[in-house]
Amino acid sequence: MPNIDHLPDAPRLDEHAATAAFQKAVVVTAVAAMLLLVGLFIDVKQFWFAYLHGYVWALSIALGALFWNLIHHISAAGWSVVLRRLHENVTRALPVLALLFVPIACFGMTPLYKWMHPHSGDMKFGKEIYLSPAFFIVRMGIYFAIWIAYSSFLRSLSLRMETLESFEERTALLKRMEWWAPSGILLLGLTATFASFDLVMSLNFDWFSTIFGVCFWADGIRGALAVAVLTAVGLRRTGYLRHTITRQHFHDCGKLMFGFTVFWAYVNFSQYFLYWYGNMQEETKWFLDRRVGTWYTLSILLPIFYFVAPLIILLPRANKRSPKIIAFTAGLVLFCQMCQFYWEIMPESLKENVADLPSAGVTVTFMNVAAVVAFGGLIVCSLLYGFRKAPLIPLGDPRLHASIRHEVDEFGDVQE
Questions:
Q1: Run of H or E including 281
Q2: What is the pLDDT of residues 15-69, one digit of tens each?
Q3: How far is CA 76 from CA 175, 255, 399, in A?
Q4: What is the torsional sign of CA 60, 62, 66, 72?
Q5: Residues near 14 by Cβ (< 8 Å), separated by ≥ 6?
Q6: pLDDT of residue 389
Q7: 247-278 and 281-289 helices cross at what angle (nearest 10)?
Q8: What's the whole-number mean pLDDT along residues 8-21?
Q9: Residue 398 dihedral angles phi and psi, to the nearest 5°
Q10: Are 97 and 58 in contact (CB under 8 A)?
């Protein structure tokens, strides 16, 4: 076990407090899941769309956490070592999400996907080959196998590092993680793209977008960073890691949040602008569907609260260094990310055929709320379960102490 005598904070949660918090999270998640299940006996179609909405939201956060873990190793970053365990814990949700895909594969595909009903529209360009139930399920199985393999492998090496005394052995393990990370980020980019095509874009099989996968990345990356920031602030407020995760770390997280806010706006505006300019019916249909009733209101509000508000809040340097302000911004981003997926998914639940317009505006039922709480609770449970089983920070990482001492000068440059 590496020497932890000189750490500024206790590296583990109080066992009793951690168990109590985990049990409360499990109860809330279970109650929300049961409430969602009640919806299955009220409106089957709306149940499955609510389920898919919560599922995709949680999946995007877990994949975003895997992205941050991989990019940390690719860049051999030092400052983010104290945050790495947060992302590792979130990726623990991936095996559970793989199991929760089984109900979709067995029972949910017919209510969700219109390509399961040939009468709902004509599939062109050989889409009937790609959009076949067996191929759909096989693809999702391959995606999850890759995601779980990389996330479990990196986490196992991270935990193993904490059992080694030798600095050289721990450094060798770290180099091994850095060696595997580039292939992981490449495979993650490809699989996350096609997963977004399969789970969300194929809800309207007449519509297509080559940048849709990048938009999905942007949402997941922002959501996972928001979860990490909220978790870090929550730990500090309860007396943990006060001198380990410092304002310097929040400053860097704020800069990343600011940068990916701009990136999200860039890719989404690019998609909208190119389709508006081309003015082709099969491309503009997606946006025309979201101009119906209160869907249009949501279409206007999303850029304001998901882009403009975080952009303005995070502009001042002092705001990026304030735990309260950056936590508020992270909460806003996470809420808007959930609304973004609602905006993408739920209009298709109000259509019989792909060529139809939604039959109603924004409608929020108890099933939508229950799904968000249940799948959001899954992410929280994954975090808390990870904290019960392992330290809050990767104690074996050779760069841990450098990360704790991370400082930036008045211009934002790292002090050597």
A1: helix 281-289
A2: 888 899 999 999 999 999 999 999 999 999 999 999 999 999 999 999 999 999 9
A3: 9, 18, 10
A4: positive
A5: none
A6: 84
A7: 130
A8: 89
A9: -60, -20
A10: yes
Beta strand extents in 228-339 (DSSP E only): none
Domain boundaries, the chain: 15-404
pLDDT of 401 over the 70 cut = yes
Q: Identity (one letter) of the amino acid at 81? A: V
Structure tokens at 31: 């109650």
The burial class, CB within 10 Å (0-12 / 13-18 / 19+), for 3 is exposed
**% of the chain exceeding 90 in pLDDT:** 81
CA distances from 56 to 100, 345, 393, 410 (A): 11, 9, 28, 40
| pLDDT at position 411 | 53
Helix axes 323-345, 44-74, angle to 10 degrees: 130
What SS3 class is residue 210? Answer: coil
Tens of pLDDT, residue by residue over 188-230, are 999 999 999 999 999 998 888 999 999 999 999 999 999 999 9
pLDDT tens digits, 323-351: 999 999 999 999 999 999 999 999 999 99
Looking up tokens 């949910």 gives 108
| 3-class DSSP assignment, residue 414 | strand
Residue closest to 93 by CA, chosen among 334, 385, 379: 379
**DSSP classification of residue 308:** I
Contacts of 217 (CB under 8 A, 6+ apart): 64, 67, 189, 192, 193
Specify whether the CB–CB gap between 409 and 91 falls below 8 A.
no
Question: What φ, ψ does residue 414 adopt, rounded to 5°?
Answer: -65, 135
Can you give the length of the chain in residues?
416
H or E stretch covering 248? helix 247-278
The DSSP call for residue 348 is G
Q: Which residues contact 409 (CB under 8 A, 6 or more apart)?
A: 415
Which are the contacts of 300, defined by CB distance < 8 A and separation ≥ 6? none
H-helix or E-strand spanning residue 194: helix 167-199
CB neighbour class for 209 (10 Å; exposed up to 12, middle 13-18, buried from 19)? middle
State the CB neighbour count (10 A cutoff) for residue 70: 26
